[in-house]
Amino acid sequence: MDVETLHLSEKLEETQHEFWNISHQTAEFISMLIKISRVKNVLEIGTSNGYSTLWIADALKEAGNNGHLTTIEFYEKRQDIAKENISKCNLTDYVTFKQGRALEILQQLDFIPDMVFIDANKAEYIQYFDILKDKLPKGAIILADNVISHAAKVAVFLETIKNDTRYQSQVLDLPAGLLMALKLV
After folding, report:
1. Residue 150 and residue 141: Cα distance in Å, rounded?
2. Structural domain tally of the chain?
3. Is residue 23 part of a domain?
């Protein structure tokens, strides 16, 4: 991460509670996972002010494999803030922004992601999974934040993905809890 991007990420960490951003530890983990796995097409559900977007886009840039992030945000004002933050870090070429209801946008998705990061409406996690589970290729990774902090709201999602034999999943003890699932077939 270059100095300017690192500085902005530190500044955005101060807004974590206002914008419900992921923790620094979770951001570092996702960044490292992108670089290790060499994913190319990432889908983020829940942009907020662009903190996680910045980390994902920067990791795709550093991986150097022409990766791209498509990120979905319901609130136009938050997406505008995220666009500005991504622009400040010269990461615009790595990100496509989509504004609106995630459930509607997912129905019309025009690419197949090999990594999905979910950090949006917790009650809709199961619906996001239902839309994406059959479309994702073997080896695709699903990450979902807040699976410990919002356990009751994501319980059906967690149980469903755990019992889907096409996926191997584990809840990681990162702040707020992060589910990681790998599509096996």
Report:
1. 21
2. 1
3. no
